[in-house]
Design a protein that fits this description.
35% helix; 15 helices; Immunoglobulin-like; alpha/beta; B-cell activation; protein tyrosine kinase binding; five-stranded mixed β-sheet; 17 strands; Rossmann fold; repeat; Serine Threonine Protein Phosphatase 5, Tetratricopeptide repeat
Length: 382
C-alpha cells in the first residue's frame, strides 16, 4: 500500500485509551507507524492550527464510547465537526454504544457516508475498513484529487507538533489489553509488544500470589499475542513473555471480583443507597432492602457467600480486614432484611466478629449510623 505522511488519526476519550493503544498496534504494519496518531479529545484546544493539522489525516477513526458521548461539551462538538471531514473518510468504532444516533444529534456528521464498525467485530474487520479508506485516500492524492477543503492542504506539520497538542504514541514496551479482568471469566487478553518481536515459540507465564501458569498464546502477528486469561483470585498477576524459553518482558493484569467491582462503583457514588435505588428502580430504602435480599436469596451459593468467611480466623475473635464483608455493608446502610439473610450463611459468626479497617464490627457499624433495630438484631446473634 502506498503511504502518506499522515494516514490515520484515532480520536478517543480517556476511558477508551486502552482501545486506542490496541488499535494502534493492530494497524501498525499495514499502515506506517509514523503515520498513525492517537488523540485524546480531552486535550482539544481552540487553536485553528490544531484543527487544520488533525483534519489533514487521510482516515479519522473515532472511538465512540459512553464517556465520549457524555463528555461532548460545546468545544469538543465543534472540534469533531471540524475534523471529521469528509464523512466518507470517517470510521466510527461503536464501543459500548449501540448506534450512531446519539452522536448525530450532537455533531453535524453525515451518518450515511461514514463507515461503522463495532467493538464486537474481529480485528481484521477494523483493519480492512480503515486500510481501505487509507488506500482510496492515497489513490486520490496521487491523482491530485482534492479530497479536503483547500485551506487544509497547506497545513502540514511535524508529528512532534501533534504530540504537543495531545497526540501520543505507545511508550511502554508491553501493554495488556484489557488490563483488568473479572475473576473466573476466561476473558480474551491481548499482549501488545512495542519493540520486541514474538516468535512462534512464545509463551506467557501468569504468576499470582500462590499460583503460576504458563500458557501458549495465539500469535496474531509478531507483536500481538492473544490468550484467554487463566482463572486467578482477585489481585494483581504478573505476566511474563517468554521467547525461546527465556523471560523477556513483563506486564501485569488486575483480577477483580464482581463484589469488588460493585464496591468500587458504590464508593464513587455520592450516595450509594440513592445510586442503588435508581439502578433497581426502587422508591425507598425499605423497598431496596427487600429487593436486595430477594436477589441475594435467589443467587445464594450452596455454601453461602465467601465474603462472610475469614480464613484461619477463630470464631469470636476480633480481627481486622482490609475490606468489609457484605454484612458490614448491610450494617452501614441499615439493610435489615439483607443482614437477616446473611446471618443464616456459613461464616456469619466470623463476619460478626471481624472489624473493618476502622476497627468496627457490623454491630458497632449499625449503632454508629443510627440503625437501632439492626444493631439489636446483630447483638442478639453474637
Amino acid at each position: 500500500m502506498s503511504r502518506t505522511a499522515e494516514e490515520l488519526l484515532i480520536i478517543y476519550e480517556s476511558e477508551a485509551e486502552q482501545w486506542a493503544t490496541y488499535l494502534q498496534s493492530v494497524f501498525t504494519g499495514p499502515i506506517s507507524e509514523a503515520g498513525i496518531c492517537c488523540y485524546d479529545i480531552a486535550t482539544v484546544s481552540s487553536r485553528q492550527d490544531d484543527f487544520l493539522r488533525l483534519a489533514h489525516y487521510t482516515c479519522k477513526l473515532l472511538i465512540l464510547s459512553k464517556g465520549m458521548l457524555e463528555g461532548l461539551c460545546q468545544k469538543r462538538r465543534f472540534f469533531l465537526a471540524r475534523v471529521l471531514r469528509p464523512a466518507a473518510h470517517v470510521v466510527v468504532l461503536l464501543c459500548g454504544v449501540d448506534s450512531l444516533t446519539p452522536l448525530l444529534e450532537l455533531v453535524p456528521l453525515n451518518g450515511d457516508e461514514c463507515l461503522k464498525v463495532s467493538s464486537e467485530q474481529d480485528a481484521h474487520e477494523y483493519l480492512s475498513t480503515v486500510t481501505d479508506v487509507v488506500r482510496k485516500g492515497a489513490i486520490a492524492s496521487a491523482a491530485n484529487v482534492n479530497t479536503f477543503p483547500r485551506k487544509l492542504l497547506g497545513s502540514e506539520k511535524k508529528v512532534e507538533q501533534m504530540e504537543s497538542a495531545g497526540a501520543h504514541r505507545v511508550t511502554s514496551r508491553v501493554v495488556a489489553v484489557p488490563s483488568r479482568v473479572p475473576c473466573g471469566s476466561s476473558t480474551e487478553v491481548f499482549i501488545l509488544l512495542k519493540n520486541e518481536s514474538a516468535g512462534d515459540d512464545a509463551e506467557l507465564e501468569f504468576t499470582g500470589e500462590n499460583q503460576t501458569l504458563r500458557l501458549k498464546p495465539v500469535c496474531w502477528n509478531e507483536r500481538i499475542l492473544c490468550v484467554n486469561a487463566p482463572d486467578f483470585p482477585a489481585g494483581y498477576v504478573r505476566v511474563t513473555v517468554y521467547s525461546n524459553g527465556v523471560p523477556s518482558i513483563k506486564t501485569q493484569l488486575q483480577y477483580y471480583s464482581n463484589v469488588e467491582e460493585m464496591t468500587c462503583l458504590l464508593a464513587k457514588a455520592a450516595d450509594p443507597v440513592d445510586f442503588m435505588c435508581q439502578a433497581l428502580q426502587e422508591s425507598s430504602v425499605e423497598k431496596l432492602d427487600q429487593k436486595l435480599s430477594s436477589m441475594l436469596l435467589e443467587g445464594m451459593p450452596t455454601g453461602g457467600f465467601r465474603g462472610l468467611q475469614c480464613k484461619n480466623t477463630p470464631e469470636r475473635e476480633l480481627c481486622h480486614a482490609d475490606a468489609p464483608s457484605l454484612l458490614h455493608f448491610a450494617a452501614r446502610y441499615g439493610f435489615k432484611s439483607v443482614s437477616s439473610l446473611l446471618l443464616q450463611c456459613p461464616g456469619a459468626q466470623r463476619a460478626l466478629h471481624t472489624a473493618n479497617r476502622h476497627g468496627q464490627t457490623p454491630a458497632q457499624i449499625a449503632r454508629s449510623h443510627g440503625h437501632a433495630e439492626l444493631h439489636a438484631l446483630l447483638k442478639e446473634t453474637l
